[in-house]
Amino acid sequence: MANDPLFLVAAAAVLGVAVILFMGIGNFGKGGDPKTSNKLMRWRIIGQFIAVALILIFVLIRRGG
Known about the structure:
InterPro entries: Hypoxia_induced_domain. Keywords: Membrane, Transmembrane, Transmembrane helix. This is Twin transmembrane helix small protein. The protein has 65 residues and is an all-alpha fold. The protein has one domain. The chain has two helices and no strands. Helix 1 runs antiparallel to helix 2. The longest helix has 30 residues. It is elongated. The chain starts with a helix and ends with a helix.
């Protein structure tokens, strides 16, 4: 499974979402610009959509159908 390119792409997308999430939490925690926090959270939602879609595609392909 770790050699499957789609798995690696899905894992990278999940890690990307985690990075964006922590950046947003860090910006919020230090009292940063609300516009930046909103932009980061929008990017997080987009990233989550992509990550979930990639995970679903991976599962469908691995199940054979």
